[in-house]
Amino acid sequence: MSKGVSLLSVAPMMEYTHRHYGYLLRRLSKKTKLYGEMTIDRAIAANVRLNQPSKVRRFLERNSNEKPVAVQLGATRASLAFNYDEINLNVGCPSEKASKSSYGCRLMKDPEVVCELTRTMIKEVSEWSASTNQPAIPVTVKCRIGVDDLDSYEHLTGFIEKIHNGSLYTPPDGSSQPAQVEHFIIHARKGLLGLNTKLNRSVPPLDYEFYYRLLRDFPQLKFTLNGGISDLDQVKEHLGRGAHGVMIGRAACNNIWQFAHADSIIFGATDPPPIGKLDLLMDYLQYALEREKDGDKKCTLLQPLSKTFAGRLTGQYLDRWRKMKSMQEVCDDVQANLGSVEECLTNRHPFYMMRHRLAQSKVEESIFDIS
Fold it and tell me: DUS-like FMN-binding domain: which residues (predicted)?
């Protein structure tokens, strides 16, 4: 069940990698794999009960142009995700909420539970595949290299081996082929339960060597590397060392524009140059206008733009757009100020140049700050 291992992927991030971000990403890169926000069935059920269809859509629905796209589940039912290209189990989130709800990084202490969860998911996928005559969807696991004091390489290899073997499902009627977890996404830091998620992305040190040892010790499996990787040069470096795939996290939101070159640099594609900044903005605003008519909230639709065009439109336009009542007002404002908007996007606007010089001066000051 290791089909679909991508050379480059975007990590699942709550409140970021929803379908609106996915729309923007896919306009820049056709081949980078996107992992959507983590989903748990209790959240879906609660939003259905409260009659909040927009929140249900946020977690489960994806745009038709987003593929390849994976869903990450937190100890939930695979039947929620049969329209995705991959079903990934979260065994890496160190948050207090995840620990109290018995999913995420704490499951690295309970590999038997992970085996049961993945085996159940694979069973559901297998039954769905047999009944619909559709290809089986791979079930994968995203974990860290350890948790708390269980941080030895021996513990990691024991965990990987138990999940691979314990997730095996063989249909009793022979309706489909046996399947098991064959692809692991490895965040190359251990998780520290009790430490908040932000600090868990920086306090535990990175150890890429654990990842590369896994490649040597489990040649029958596939592994994607995650953690501390921020640009395509680093992706190429790790792929050159033999990584099966590389996943970018926060930098995928802070610098989405780098994916405009991903298809050619990472995948060797010779497609035409991607869409330009102004064209992307106009395209997305038209998309957002249609999504608002379907019930999506303006604040959620504007959220991807705050990162995509950060430093260019922030302050000059985005702050103003957030106060407007509808996406139609936003679109009208863009049309009325099209020349100025284009200047902002091409870094020629005086407001942006002032912000850039101020940021540069702060960087220069920080070089000498030893406090």
Answer: 10-333
